[in-house]
């Protein structure tokens, strides 16, 4: 495929595991961000404030913005982004948490799921 035939679009997948050391600080930061958003309608603000107050994972979802990750990368424009957060059980010594993609088999390969 020549350079002219290749798509200009790239999907960048990122998985991040964070350890929350101060839930109160995360919640306060999310509430400050919500309060500073002048375009957020009051009804949505109230719902969002409840969500970030009840769940630190929701607070993180409000604080981590994919646009912030790529806004200063020269030559690219964010076209679409989605992200979510959830509480997980994490064991850094478990082979399930090995992020070395070279060792992961595709579903179509022998031994894959499917």
Could you please describe the fold and organization of this structure?
By secondary structure, the protein is mainly α. The chain is 34% helix and 0% strand. It has helices at 23-35, 42-54, 56-63, 66-70. Helix 1 (23-35) packs antiparallel against helix 2 and helix 2 (42-54) crosses helix 3. The model is unreliable at 103-114 (pLDDT under 50).
Distance between the termini: 30 Å
Shape: flat
Tally of contiguous helical segments:
4
Oligomer: single chain
- H-E string: HHHH
Give the averaged pLDDT, no decimals: 84
Please state the structural category: mainly alpha
- Please provide the count of β strands: 0
Radius of gyration: 19 Å
Largest sheet: none
**Considering DSSP H and I runs of 4 or more, what fraction of the residues is helical?**
25-40%
Approximately what portion of the residues adopt beta-strand conformation?
under 5%
Distinctive features:
flat, mainly alpha, 4 helices, disordered C terminus, 114 residues
Ordered list of secondary-structure elements with their pairings:
Blueprint: H1 23-35, H2 42-54, H3 56-63, H4 66-70
